[in-house]
Design a protein that fits this description.
Layout: E1 2-4, E2 7-8, H1 11-14, E3 18-21, E4 28-31, E5 36-39, E6 53-61, E7 68-69, E8 72-75, E9 81-85, E10 91-96, E11 105-110, E12 115-118, E13 123-124, E14 128-129, E15 134-142, E16 149-152, E17 158-160
Parallel strand pairs: 1-17, 2-11
Antiparallel strand pairs: 3-12, 4-5, 6-15, 7-17, 8-16, 9-12, 9-15, 10-11, 10-13, 10-14
Amino acid sequence: MRMMRPSPLTREAFRPFGEVIEMDGSAHFTINQGFTERFNDLAPVDVSMEGGGPNVSLFLGQPRPAPIRITLMERHPLGSQAFIPLQDRPWLVLVAESVHDFASYRAFTCSGLQGVNYARNVWHHPLLVLDADSRFLIIDRKGPGNNLEEAWFEDTPLHIIHP
């Protein structure tokens, strides 16, 4: 069994898998008569393949038992998928370059001020929260075609440990 500890989420470390969505370090400008800062163009929304369109939804996540046993990974071949927390609570992200090469897996601890945008076709674990009733805004693809591929593991070789 392989135990994995997440590292802090950074733009550089996450770049092979998509974008980190956060205000810190992002270009911005003032709008609304000087009362608002706009942080614009934080991640591309890639949803138009095979006639797809944008879908905005809310998720309400619950924590999994610790250590987190990894039995499933998924990817979306027709579009990107963005997760943006709606409260300042840490949460986890697990991604992989190759679903069956466990050495390629990377785990990240995200602050409640960081979202992620998984690029199209990136293997990732479904939402991993640490607190009950964790709310997220999701921007992904809706439309024709199969935009979900799952890989299940019978003998789970990977667990995530979080302090």
